[in-house]
Amino acid sequence: MKKIALPVALFAVLAATTPAFADGGLPKIASLQVGSHTVSIHGDSPSLHTGTNTFTVEIPALSSAHSVSLRLTGPSGQTVSVPLKDLVVVSGPEDHSSMADMPGMAGMDHGTAGGDGAHSHDEGSFDARGKAVINTPGTWTIAVDITGHGGTQSAQTSVDVVRGGPSRLYLGFTGLLIGGSITYGVAQRRRQNNGR
Amino acid sequence: MAVQLKTNPLPERDERSPGNLLTIPWLKAFLKSRWFPAVLAYPTLVVFGYIVYTLLWGPEAASANLGTSLTWVLWWPLIPIFMFALGRFWCAICPFATTIDLVQKVAGLGRPVPAFLKKYGIWIIDAVFIAITWSDHVFGIVESPRGSGYLLGLIVTAVVVTGVIFERRAWCRYLCFLGGLSGNYSRSSALELRATPEICATCKTQSCYKGNGKTPGCPVFEFPRMMQTSSNCNLCANCIKTCPNDSIRLTPRTPTKELWFMAKPKFEESFLAVVIVGIVLVQNITMLSFWEPIMEALTGALLGSRVLAFTAVFVVAMALPFGIVAVASRLSGKSTGETFAKNFARFGYAVIPLDLAGHIAHNLFHLLAEGKSIFYNGAALFGYQVTGPANVLPMSTIQVLQFATLALGIGGSIFTAYKIAGRGKNDGTGLKAFWPHLLVLVLFGLINVYLFTLPMSHRV
Questions:
Q1: 3-state secondary structure (DSSP) of residue A125
Q2: Among residues 36-65 of chain A, which lie with CB inside 8 Å of chain B?
Q3: Which of B150, B388, B457 sits opposite A23 (nearest CB)?
Q4: How far is A128 from chain B, CA to nearest CA, in Å?
Q5: Topology of A24-169 in CATH?
Q6: How many other β-carbons are positioned within 10 Å of the β-carbon of residue A163?
Q7: Contact assessment for residue B295 and residue B309, using Cβ atoms and an 8 Å cutoff
Q8: Tens-place pLDDT, residues B105-155
C-alpha cells in the first residue's frame, strides 16, 4: 500500500504546487548598458536571420525627454536603421501585471509605450518595436542610441546572423517529390492521349 | 414515375423528413450552385498557402508567428467544434482536398485505389496519427513554427503524390489522419446527409457516385443510397448537385445517435477511438506543470535520453486506455457470449463523445486563453504594433466551459454505451454487458476532469 501511496502523494504535491508554464515571451537577442539604462532587445526568432527581423526594445524607467534609436551594421559595413514604433498595450479581461503573459513580450513589468521611439510617462518603461531586413549572414553589430537633455549615449554589441528559412534539404526533397510526381502524371497522360 | 419524381419530388419527401434542410430554398440553391464549395475552398487554400509560407519563412518564435496562431490557436480548436456541428464539412473545403482537385486536373492518372489501402487504410491512419503525436513531442511541431511548416509541407507532398496516382480523393478517404479523426468525430455530429431509399430504388443513373457531365461523383467513394454513417461524407454537395431525383436529404439529428446503432462495427475504428483517449491524455499531461519534473526523473533513469523517456510515457499512455477497455470488453463479452474483439469493436465507439468533448475542452483553453494572439500577430502584418493579454475570457469562465463540455461528453459516452448494450437485448444480458464499460467511461471521465483542474501551458 505504501508503495502506491507514496508516488500518488508525490504526484499530488507536485501537481498542486508547481506553477503553470507561461510561454509567450520573445527570445532575447541582446542586452546593452547605455549609460545608466539597461536595454533589452528581443527578436522574433532565437537568433537574427536573413530576411525580415522584428526587434522589440524594452528600457525600464526612461523619462519622456529621451528618444531611442536602433541601427544594425553588417560585416561589410552596410548600415540598416530600425524604425521603432510604440508598442500599444491593450487591456484584457483579467488584470495582468507582467508582460510575461503577453504574446510577443518578454517578462518585464510594463508601463505605457510612447510615440516615435519616445514614451509618454515621465518614468515609465520604454517599449517599442521595429522591423528590418537583413540580407547577409555573418557577424552584425547592434547599436542603441539614447538621446536626452545631456546629449546622446550609445552602446553596441555583436550578434550572429544566420541564414533564415527552412532547411534546403527539406525544400529539395519535397520539391523533388511534388515536381517529379506532377511531371510523371502529365507525361503519362500525354502518352495515354497519344496512344489513343 | 421517374418523370414525376424529377418534376415534383419535394412534397412527398417533406412528409417523410420534415427536418430536411434542403427544403430551405436559398440553402438548396447555394449547395447546388457551382460556387459551392469553391467559394469557401479557394480562399481557404490561399490562407493555407500563406500559413505554410509564414511557418517556414516567418518568425521562429511561436508567439510572434501568425501561422502558428492561425493553425494551433484558431483552426485546431475550431475543428472539433465544426465536426460536432457539421460533421466532416471541413474536409469539403480543406486545402489538401482542393490541392488534390487541382493536381488531378493537370496530372491525375485516376488509377483505382489498391485493395490493401482500402483494407488497411484505417490502420495506416491510426499509425500515422500516433507517430505524428509522438513526433510533436520529440521534435517539436506545435510549439515550433518550422516544425509545423515541415509537417504541413510533408502532408502536401503526400497529398500531391497520391492525388496524381489515385482516382478521386483517395488520400482523404484512406490515408488522411485528420480525416480518420474527423470520421470518428463525425459519427457524433448533429447533421447527416442521406439519400431517400425509396427514391433511389427507382434510379437508373447513379450519378451521385459516377458524376454527371458537370459535377464529379462522390470524391470519397460513397454511394449515398447505401450510406449508414457520416464518417466519410464531406458534405461537398456533389451528390446534391448530381442527383436527378432530389433524393438527398440533409437533416439535423440527435448528436451521438449514429453510434447507438452501428450496423457493422469495426475493430480498427474502435481502436482509433480508444487511442485518441491516450493521445488526449498525453496532450494534456505534457502541458501540465508537473510534467517537466517527471520527465527529468525519467530521463535520468533512461540513459539520460529525453526521447526514450518520452517514448516510455507515450507507450504507457497509449496502451493504458486500450488495456482498460480490453479488460472491460472481456468482462462484458462474457455476459453476451461475444469474443473480446467483437465486444471491443461494438463498445469502442462509446468513447467517441468523450474523445470529442476532451478535444474540444482542451482546445477551448487555447482558443479562449490565447485567442487574442491572432489579433496581435495579425495587426503586425499591417504595421500595427499591438500587444496585451492573450486571453479572450477570464480563466475561471474558460474552466466552467471546459467542465460543461466534459460533462456533456461523459454523459454522451455513457448513454451511447447504454444504447449499444441494450441493442436487441431484452433478457438482461445487455445491462450486464453495460456495467464494465460504464465503469471505464466514468474512470476516463474522472481522469479528464482531474486533468482539467490543473494548470496548462500556452501554445504561443
A1: coil
A2: 43-46, 49, 51, 54
A3: B457
A4: 8
A5: Immunoglobulin-like (2.60.40)
A6: 10
A7: yes
A8: 999 999 999 999 999 998 899 899 889 989 988 888 888 999 999 999 999
